[in-house]
Design goal:
This protein is of the alpha/beta class. The protein has one domain: Undecaprenyl pyrophosphate synthetase, CATH 3.40.1180.10. The chain is built from ten helices and six strands. The chain has a six-stranded parallel beta sheet. Helix 4 runs parallel beside helix 6 and helix 7 packs across helix 8. It comes from Catenaria anguillulae PL171. One of its GO terms (molecular function) is ditrans,polycis-polyprenyl diphosphate synthase [(2E,6E)-farnesyl diphosphate specific] activity. One of its GO terms (cellular component) is lipid droplet.
């Protein structure tokens, strides 16, 4: 007689079954097309050496589910940190981007498009190369989108949008033009923004995208949720109360957005990368002077593991 599966397998199966059942039940109500995360608390969690949880890719893989997840992985301000720490974070970025683009079964099965948002020319060449390959390998996917913001600030995003729209507009035209030029322009507006580790600030992340439209279409902006758990501890189960709060809010305000689907052939612009540098062995030195702003700690840190199919703790 065959031995029964180990208790850990039963536990994993039960957790997965419950998760899919809850997703199916919650899908009867409004599902947020776009969820954003400010990942915080990784360094403090890493000291305890526990197993990180999974949330970002399972959200995108759920059917029906979230169509876009945007994560704040590295701020432009993080270049001001100690160089050894920055180098460690860059090494982790390379590892995780390679896993996502070449080894993740969820990315391949659910055709999850990986997009890198931010001023990628500030990144070291080897990180640019890994980011470029992650975008290139998934550029034909249109099932869902994982936006990884490295290196990013809202001020960069908005100033870049303004520079690309130098025509004269009336006030409404300016707003529409800037929205079309933001790096998230192909994505629906942010519905939920979660920050982990108990911090209560946005740290220059998606400042335009979370503001809504001033009530013109019953869109009061994103639901902001600040949770005490650190990012590696934040799992699907910790996200459930936030999703329920969103559904209650949407039903109460009658402001549910239409289901969002990505068009086939979503454009990919590789010219954002320093293509000459990617093919060159030249080293990279970050700029010595960067504008000041408050930023969250632990935006991109945690243990590296090729066994992880999903992006926590680093992504």
């Amino acid at each position: 007689m065959a031995s029964p599966p180990p208790s850990s397998s039963w536990s994993s199966w039960l957790s997965s079954t419950l998760q899919h059942s809850l997703i199916s039940a919650l899908a009867l109500g409004p599902i947020p097309p776009h969820v954003a995360f400010i990942m915080d608390g990784n360094r403090r969690y890493a000291k305890r050496q526990n197993q990180p949880k999974q949330v970002a890719l399972p959200l995108l893989a759920s059917r029906p589910g979230v169509r876009v997840v945007t994560i704040y992985a590295f701020s432009i301000e993080n270049f001001k940190r100690d160089q050894d720490e920055v180098d460690y974070l860059f090494a982790m970025m390379i590892d995780k981007l390679q896993v996502l683009s070449t080894e993740s079964k969820l990315v391949e099965r659910y055709r999850i498009r990986i997009r890198i948002l931010g001023d990628v020319t500030l990144l070291p060449v080897d990180v640019q190369r890994a980011a470029y390959e992650a975008e290139r390998r998934t550029s034909g996917y249109c099932g869902a989108v994982l936006n990884i913001c490295i290196p990013y600030t809202s001020r960069f995003d908005m100033s870049h949008a303004v520079r690309t729209r130098d025509e004269m507009y009336d006030l409404q035209g300016i707003t529409r033009s800037v929205e079309q030029a933001l790096q998230t322009s192909e994505c629906p507006p942010v519905d939920i923004l979660v920050r982990t580790s108990g911090e209560h600030r946005l740290s220059d992340f998606l400042m335009w995208q979370v503001c809504g439209d001033g009530g013109k279409s019953h869109d009061a902006g994103a639901l902001l949720e600040f949770v005490a758990k650190s990012w590696p501890e934040f799992s699907f189960w910790q996200f459930l109360p936030t999703l329920v709060d969103y559904q209650v809010s949407v039903l109460g305000q009658q402001r549910a957005r239409k289901s969002f689907q990505f068009p086939n052939g979503l454009p990919w612009d590789p010219t954002r990368f320093d293509l000459a540098a990617i093919q060159s062995p030249d080293s990279f030195s970050p700029p010595s002077s960067l504008p000041d702003s408050r930023v969250g700690d632990d935006a991109f840190s945690g243990p590296v593991s090729h066994q992880q199919v999903v992006i926590p703790p680093s992504l």
